[in-house]
Amino acid sequence: MLPKLFSLAVVATFIVDITAGPISLDTVLDIVKRELPSTHRLHERHLSPLVHKWTKKEKVPRAVNLPMRIGLKQVNLAAGDKRLLEISDPTSFHYGNHMTPDEVIDFFAPPQSSVDAVITWLTESGIAADRIGQSANKQWLQFDASVEEVESLLYADFFLWEHNSGSEDIAAEKYHVPIHIQEHIDYVTPGTRLRTGSAKTPSSMPSKKRAASLSGRPDVSLLPGFPNPNSTTCSIYVTADCTRAQYSIPNGTTAYPGNQLGIFESSNDHYSRQELDVYFSTLYPYIPNGTWPEERLIDGAVGAIEDPSNFTNVEDGAESALDFNSAIPLIYPQGTVLFQEDDQWYESHGGYNGFWNTFLDAIDGSYCTYSAFGETGDCTDPDCLDPVYPDPNPGGYKGQLQCGVYKPTNVISISYHQVEGELPDSYFKRQCNEWMKLALQGVTVITSSGDVGVGQKSQCGGDEKQIFSPHSAATCPYVLAVGSTQWDRFANATGPELPYEKLNEVATTRFASGGGFSQIFGTPSYQQEAVAAYFAQVESSLPFDGYDNFVVDGNYSSVSSGVYHRGGRGYPDVAAVGDRQVVFTGGQWQLIGGTSLSSPVFASAITLINEARLEAGKSTLGYLHPVLYSNPQVFHDVTVGHNPGCNNSPGFPAAKGWDPVSGLGSPNFPALMDLLLKL
């Protein structure tokens, strides 16, 4: 595999070599004289909206060597979805036959015929076979070649380009390949893509935090003194005991090896071990002190922090505390795993927009060089810039990007989101393919749906900020998205609330459960009937209309009317309690709400069911969507509430069956366990 920063070193080399300044007459004549043979066709050209921040500079000298990569077209992307449905269909003979990581690589690898065709083209063009290598994940070919060789190969002219941030890259405005080769390759790099590389943010400039954010924590209520943290009044104080009582979840009794619940954290939010001990000692004395998550720290990340004053811009830890305070008591004696990504420089200073890629790199080594939708590896484009390792910034992690250093847990809970349109579609699609690959391996990825209903005004689309803005990764059809509910006393209830009294479950009211329809991903087959049934109930009463076309890269110019995408993947899929959770963080007892609670609660339920399946000698559940949508009876249907947002839009209403507020509903755990344990 080529070194991650090799292309940057090449840039530095030819910058030194270029001393002639303006383009010479010989170079101009060389460009004009090149004639394209009839055997070749244009393969890629610059898209003008993507180069407006770049200035074309000098022609790259012919003697400069370039590290070339040719991304081979993957096969079986559609077949991957079909295979996933097959092993997730309870009626299939192949149910539960999950794939190994190597089997996944081989399944999506380009056919050998494509590899042979491209190598033959290269060797016949003068690139010796012993100069050509293939990546470990089999998705691209690599070789070093001079600019002269590459320009002759691709009928292209390579220039030095400068970004307005000061970073530089090399690229051609267009390139060509033989007609018979086009079907085998996705793209060539260096080619037309311009990337900013690892140029760090100058210390004199304000740093930009990553665009992704926590999905929840819209309201934090301090509980001074909190005289009764063991309260059984579940409409006021939500604890794991309340969650067990409302959803009929039994106490955990086993800890099957390797079945810990994985919890993802980022954005400089860190838990405290001391505060976890206080929480357990007060509410759950049967959980011994020291019951902390196993820390799987990625690219120099920091796990628990006891003294925030020793770090820069550390958050108060409420998100991490919420995740572990809610999950650990539900699954104990089973444990948890913390996946914390990125070093403290990136976490505290920002300077990048991408999200989840370094996490996915760490749990699947092939993702580090995975090519799809014109992207290979982590994004270096300014529109989706990911952290770069080794981190060149002061105090940054100086090790290499961590690829495949950790095994994913069977269930992973994520309480963070990214708004569709804030990153290129190709970024989200490449990630969604990776969520699919994890599902093929029996991993269930669960995420919160967000806390701003159909969209936060500042992030909504259109000139008047009226177009709904769905949230990733909830919109990926291979991720289980969880909306939020709250427990209230029934309207006819009288007298004081009884301990663990059965309560009425409705959509949250202090904040809006995130939901809607993707602008990037279409409605998956498992969901089509449920979505149609929803609109049959409510469409005539909606005060807004939808639009039919996909929105490309957040450009809403094609939307002439309507505020939601009719043909999009609907979310959330399910729901769970998302408000009034008792948490101990920052040295205080607090009540915290958000779908950041809903995700670990539902993930805990699935972890318990996996526990029972593994004890019975069965496989993990993996991809749950088809079986859940086929069995809505295992949920408490939530029919009261709505999710406003986007310029005070009323949003979508809850309804019978699936809806884009509470999904299929909250778990009826005994029914859910009975269904899934029998599979």
Topology:
Layout (H helix, E strand, L loop, with lengths): L5 H12 L7 H9 L6 E6 L8 E6 L5 E8 L4 H12 L12 H8 L3 H13 L8 E2 L5 E7 H8 L3 E6 L4 E5 L1 E5 H4 L2 E5 L23 E2 L4 E4 L17 H8 L13 E5 L7 H11 L10 E5 L19 H14 L4 E6 L2 H6 L7 H7 L7 E2 L2 E2 L34 E4 L1 E4 L5 H16 L3 E5 L22 E2 L7 E9 L15 E4 L8 E7 L5 H11 L7 E2 L16 E2 L2 E4 L2 E4 L3 E5 L2 E6 L1 H21 L9 H5 L5 E2 L29 E2 L1 H10 L1
Parallel strand pairs: 12-14, 12-17, 13-14, 17-19, 19-21, 21-27, 24-25
Antiparallel strand pairs: 1-8, 2-6, 3-5, 3-9, 4-5, 6-7, 10-18, 11-29, 15-16, 18-20, 21-22, 23-26, 28-29, 30-31
Helix pairs in contact: 3-13, 8-10, 9-10, 10-15, 15-17
Describe the structure.
The chain has 679 residues and is an alpha/beta fold. The chain has two domains: 147 residues, no CATH class; 431 residues, 3-Layer(aba) Sandwich (Rossmann fold), CATH 3.40.50.200. It contains 17 helices and 31 strands. The strands form ten sheets. Strands 12, 13, 14, 17, 19, 21, 22 and 27 form an eight-stranded mixed sheet that branches. Strands 4-5-3-9 form a four-stranded antiparallel sheet, sandwiched between helices. A hairpin with a 2-residue loop joins strand 28 and strand 29. The protein is globular, with a radius of gyration of 26 Å. One of its GO terms (molecular function) is serine-type endopeptidase activity. It is found in: Secreted, Extracellular space. InterPro entries: Peptidase_S8/S53_dom, Peptidase_S8/S53_dom_sf, S53_propep, Sedolisin_dom, Tripeptidyl-peptidase_I. Its main location: secreted.
